[in-house]
User: Fold RagB/SusD family nutrient uptake outer membrane protein from Mucilaginibacter ginsenosidivorax.
Amino acid sequence: MKSNFIQKIKHTVLSPAPKGYIALLSVALMIILPVSSCKKSFLDVVPDNVSTIANAFVSKTEAEKYLFTCYSYLPTETDPTYNVGLTAGDEVWVEDPAGHIRPTNVLQLPRGFQNSSDPIANYMNGTRDAAANYKAIRDCNVFIENVSDVTKVRDLDIDTRERWIAEAQFLKAFYHFQLFRAYGPIPIIDKNLPIDASIDDVRVKRRPVDEVVNYIAGLYDLAAAKLPLSIRNEGSELGRVTKGAALSMKAKLLVTAASPLFNGNPDYNSFKNKDGEQLFNPTYSAQKWQLAADASKAAIDFCEAQNIQLYTFPAPTTPLSQTTMTQMSIRNAMSEKWNDELIWGLTANNNIGYNSFFQSMCAGQYDFNNADAAKSANRPLMGPTIKMAKMFYTKNGVPINEDKTLDFTNIAQLRVGTHDERFNIKEGETTARLNFDREPRYYADLGFDRGVWYMANSPTKTDENTWWMKARGAEVGQSSPIPIAGFYMKKALNWHYEWATVTYINYPWPEMRLSDLYLLYAEALNEAQGPVADVYTYINRIRARAGLPTVQDSWSNYSINPTKYTTKDGMRSIIQRERAVELCFEGHRFWDLLRWKTAGVELNGNVTGWSISENSPELYYRERSIYSRHFVIPRDYLWPIQESDLLVNQNLVQNPNW
Assistant:
């Protein structure tokens, strides 16, 4: 099993230290705690504990530990109770009446409990399930300042020095991006101020959106120039950033900045600093989309030159059907560790404890003619909603409400799985209409009642007569919680998971993979130029891996809107749907809904699921309302700044309507 540097250092801090790690633990605590645990305003830009900082740069070994500290603030995406992008969106729902997990913080965002007195997921202060991004930036500044001084860390060669500075510049850009995505115009902390800085200097102001974006993009450019093309020492450096990661994250930044939330948004025409400085540019710019498209294409070209490619499942020694092979290519693009599609995988805070907690949310009990085994399942609390299940295409590659050849009017209509459908649905078993005639990603990504769930430990060693799911009422037992809507995040569970021994396989969180980059490019290019050839090319590459016809073929032959793909508006809708399906459960959709300004529609209304406590299919397959989401327009498009911070720094202004 490949290790990585961040996983090692975080394990020593967060878990009982293995025998060989005691020294590393003491050093890690010395580096991390004195520098970043002081109780001061989130925008403290004056370093403290100067003597400790000086000691951190006496040697290469000590300096590298400080670099690990800069990495340690990366988000904990493998824990759904921290992952805003997943938990606050409309893909999944969490219900925990028995108190198996913390019923607080990020889980409360879609319930309407965000506030300005003690904000949930406070990315500035690092409270209530978020990293302290301004502390992270301060530590990055300390590192860059000291390692840039050639009189310090004298045993550090020039190439390593330049690489480490570039890594810190990348992280500094990423932490600014985390803040920008949530708050919009933010204070830019380019350098830490000296200890004797005046009060006026310390009271920094928010900077206009365009200035923030240009600053972050510039940092990514600086980092990309000196970062390695790829990770060579995979045994110790997996998870550290590369040039491909920098180029790709710059593309994501520019696509975000070009999107409706930040590009000529009239909701913020009157949003200004206290001195009257306008924080949002009121004029829409199509050029921003072109810049984003150019950056995305540059990132794609570079990544492909480094042999990063859409993942395809290698042929196993035991033959599998093409149906299962396609599904495994889709599933493993997310959960197969360090696969060929991964551009940047997060490993900070991603030790086996966090990762297994996430996967336990996904792991259904696979039943092979064994109802008693199903009753002992360790069932998850989080699961996809019916809305998400409806999002996937039909087998013809168009939305279920657009397919002119297939009728999904009654999604609960009962139907029996046939022999030809045996690799998707258990032959001879009854399930809902919604589960039939769907695209391969539906069966790859979702676990559902009577659905087939192939795993590496298949009892037949093949996908014939393999695991399948029983998910109704008494079949699963009442002592274990089950997903509230009746669906499972199958895609997020590594296929080597052993349900009998509850053995999870750790994998890096896919912060950026090639399909995401393809979709960003197609979106930006469509907005800049309309549906030109490359828009179709890169969408169709993803669809081909998913076993679907091209956009042109699907809509021309099967859609009630056959010319939809020929217009910018039509392709915008198609691209947004592709992002929802291709990247489901990877933490992107919530942030996409914000930047598209569609969250007001998508994140309000009822969450629905099947009647999971019922035993018969007639009663189980009844769509019921579980909860009503709350998203206040336009207030909730930007995070609130904590009120106490506004009192400490009177140059700051609150986001509108908070």
Remarks:
- The domain at 66-73+120-307+641-648 is CATH 1.25.40.390 (Serine Threonine Protein Phosphatase 5, Tetratricopeptide repeat).
